[in-house]
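Task card 7
Instruction: Convert sequence to structure tokens.
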Amino acid sequence: MQRRKFLSLLLGSASLLFMLPINAWAALWNKAAFETAKLSEASKNLAIHDEITSLDIQITAPDRAENGAIVQVEVKSNILNTEAISIFVEKNPTPLIAHFKFSQGAEPFIITRIKMADTSDIKVVVKAGNQYFTHAKNVIVLENGCG
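Output:
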């Protein structure tokens, strides 16, 4: 009987230790920014201000997406010391699609698939130091992806 108690205590402790990193990651998630319905509020919740238009942000996405449920997007920042890249789609129910943070020396390059509710711009905001740079690409959506 003691062996069963020991094993259950051991497994319980191991599962608790496994859950601690998940809780730490959840604390880093900016819930307010991801759940807001307006692009301006999502930007405000990420503390984005005074955006500068930049052609040093490359956005590769289709001009026309046959199905808005799967739109492949590639983003590459050629801005020195890129710290974060945020992707927004204004006409989505929640405009903030993704927010990526980069460690020193990491290449600021992303390939992801997003959902788009309607024809809209894919807006990318890059943070480098205390400055924010932006670039956008319009994508025509033929079939709604956020149903």
